[in-house]
Amino acid sequence: xxxxxxxxxLMESLRVLPGVGPKTAQRMAMHLLERDRDGGRxxxxxxxxxxxxxxxxxxCRTLTEDEVCALCESTRRDDGLLCVVESPADQxxxxxxxxxxxxxxxxxxxxxxxxxxxxxxxxxDALESRVAEEGVEEVILATNPTVxxxxxxxxxxxxxxxxxxxxxxxxxGVPMGGELEYVDGGTLSRAFNGRLPxxxx
Amino acid sequence: xxxxxxxxxLMESLRVLPGVGPKTAQRMAMHLLERDRDGGRxxxxxxxxxxxxxxxxxxCRTLTEDEVCALCESTRRDDGLLCVVESPADQxxxxxxxxxxxxxxxxxxxxxxxxxxxxxxxxxDALESRVAEEGVEEVILATNPTVxxxxxxxxxxxxxxxxxxxxxxxxxGVPMGGELEYVDGGTLSRAFNGRLPxxxx
Lengths: 201, 201
Known about the structure:
Chains A, B: Keywords: DNA damage, DNA recombination, DNA repair, Metal-binding, Zinc, Zinc-finger. Chains A, B: InterPro entries: DNA_Rcmb_RecR, Rcmb_RecR, Rcmb_RecR_Znf, TOPRIM_dom, TOPRIM_RecR. Chain A is 44% helix and 12% strand. The first copy, chain A, is α/β, with parallel strands linked by helices. Chain A is built from 8 helices and 6 strands, in the order H-H-H-E-E-H-E-H-E-H-E-H-E-H. In chain A, helix 1 packs across helix 2 and helix 2 crosses helix 3. In chain A, 27% of the residues are buried. The first copy, chain A, folds into 2 domains: 47 residues, Helicase, Ruva Protein, domain 3 (Orthogonal Bundle); 96 residues, Dna Topoisomerase Vi A Subunit, Chain: A, domain 2. The interface between A and B is large, with 56 and 56 residues.
C-alpha cells in the first residue's frame, strides 16, 4: 500500500527541493494536507509567481523581478568598483558582511567546459563592455576559492587586462574565529605565504 | 540589503514546510530559481492540485482524492477487523509492516479539549455507526502510546462497549532490535508486567 496517486505525486514533486528525501517529503506533504492547507496554497501561488516573474537584472544579472535591481538603481554606490560573484547568495553574503560600497556582477556559475558552460553563459561579454564603457576602476574577482572559481577568475582577468582596469582577488587566509588545528593544509600554507607584519591594533 | 521583495516572499512562503528555517528556505529558493525552474513549476502545480482535490475518504476518512480510498474499495480485506489510527502516516506504517488484513478508520488527531478538538472532530459518530451497522467484530485501538492517544483510546472504548464489539490495543513492550539499556523506564516496566511464557521458536 502507499498513499493515493495524487499524494504520491505531491511527495515526489517536493523532492525537487534540495536536501529533501522520501521521508522528509512525506512529512512535508502530510503537514500541508493535514495542518496547513492555507500555507500550502500560498506557497503554490508565490512559487508560481516567482518562477514566472523573477529574471536577471539587466545591469548586474542578479535575480530580481524588476528590470534593474535595487542595488543597481541606488545612487549611493561607487560606480568605480565592480565585484564579480558566482551567485546571488554570494552577493548577499558580501552585503551582509558590510563595508563594500561598489557595484556587483553576477555570473550565475563558473566556467565548466565539461558541462558546456562557457563565457557567454556567464555574461562575460556584458561584463567586458561594462568595464570598457563605464569608468570602472577596479574589478574585484570574488569567485569561489575552488579550482573552477580560480579558473574563472583567471579567464576574466585575462579578458579585462587590455582595458587597463585594476584587478583584485579576495585575500586568502585562516578564517576568523576558527582554530588552526582544523584549518586545511592548502589554506594554512596560503596564510603562511601571505603573512603580514604584526600591528598591535 | 536583502533579495528582491518577490524572492523574499518566496523564502518566507517556503517556511510553512516543517523543519525549514531561514537558511534552508534561502537555499531552496536559490536552487529553484537558479537550477530547477521546471521542477519548481511542477511542484507549484501539483501542490495547488493536491490541496484542491485531496479530501477525506467517505468511509475511513484517510486522505485521498477519490470519494472512497483504494483500501476501502478493496474486496480482499477483512470487514470484521477495524483498526483506528490517528493519522494516514500511522496507517501507512502499519500497512508497510504487513500482516494486517482488515480495514481502517483515521481520526486525524486525538482528543484535545484545550485545543478544542472533541469527538465530532475525530469523526467518532461515524465510527460508532460503522461499528453498529456493519458487522465489525474487533476494533483495534492503534492510537499513539502517548497520554493523548491513550485518553482517546479510552474514550472510544467507552463509546463502543455498548455495541458488544471486541476491543484491543497494540501490545506494549521493548522495541525489536533495541538495547534494553536505552529503553525508557515506563516501557520497560510495561514489558515486565506483560511478560510472556518463553517459547523456543
